[in-house]
Task: structure prediction
Amino acid sequence: MPFSETTDEHTEDYWTKHYERFLKPLIEECQLEAHLSKPLRGDITRQIILDLVKSPVVVADLTDANPNVYWELGVRQSFMHGTITIAQEGTKLPFDISSKGILFYDSTHLDEDDFRNSFKAAIEDCLEHPDRPDSRVLETLSGRGSLYEIIRRDETLRRLAAVLSECGYNIGVLKLIIAQVQSNQDDPVNRKISPARFRPWAAELLATNRYVDEDQPFYQLTEKYLSHLTVINDQLGRWGSAARPTEKWLLEQEEKMVKYFEEFKGRIETVRDDIEQKQC
Result:
């Protein structure tokens, strides 16, 4: 709210009495401690911002369209719900907030039963339902269907695309390794060892961050896939020193490896498709 003169009628003394004799007692009747966002010593802007973000309830008096009040209201509504907007009867509101619920009080502060009841009811509602939306800004930036959700969904799809690309690479590497092993079986004298290794990084990020809303079996499948990559890479590291047992093991495990790789890739594709359908 303003704390210095805004009009000839609304002097600094008026705003002081408006707060001390009218608003503060109403707030304290709700068992809350009232604080006025009035500049003190130190980093003024920083302290005001912290108060606006941390306070469970913020009341903004829009009378006389004070620029500081609107700035503070913008800060509050970018971070938190639980904001009550009030104004003196006759106040002209800008289009941006004209549709927002405003509690109007009489200029004399005398016949105010309706305002008092509505004001205290609004405070109690903020305390009982702190997540109930009252900020168009915050609703747009966070929550279902919001800008935040859209950005998060797009980022999730990009990460899943990386997992699928990595799966495709690993399936290709598996085919090359098995083909080389079979070639070595046919011509052991000219045995060649593939330097290729399986990539786990995108799948590791999925298993660690759990950035898709899936159940425990999905992440168990992810961890099983990663475990197989680790085991196979370890075996490939022994290929040079123990060629025959390594190749024998790879041929024995081929069917199982293909199954795990394809199962994991198919599950990721299903999750991706589900997310893309929700986007439409």
In short: The beta strands are 58-61, 83-88, 102-105. The chain has a mean pLDDT of 90. The domain at 147-279 is CATH 1.20.120 (Four Helix Bundle (Hemerythrin (Met), subunit A)). The first strand starts at residue 58 and ends at 61.
